[in-house]
Give the backbone structure.
Amino acid sequence: MVDFESKTILIVEDDDMNFIYLKQIFKILKFEFDRVKTGIDAIEKCKNNKYDAIMMDIQLPGINGYETTRAIRVFDKVTPIIAQTASKNQEEADEAYLSGCNKMLVKPFKIDDLKNVFSKIF
């Protein structure tokens, strides 16, 4: 069993309702977390902080999750990035992986889906 308690996650999510859902899950799992609403803020946060993983929304205002992931990968090639999207489109999944995401979750997902992904990356 993975010890989630010692992990710090950056949540990149512009939608408040989606964030509330993630916040509840992360509290249950005892994750520490920060949240940003834009790709630009995510890049700055990652430059100035160390995270165990990043939850990357694909549809963001300004630069999208693909562009944000590519920008983060310029200076951080190792932190796992999990794309989160409402689309089940294979092209979107392919683009997420090509951008540098390690895993992908399709919204809405359950706590067990999230635990399964994190168990694979930690």
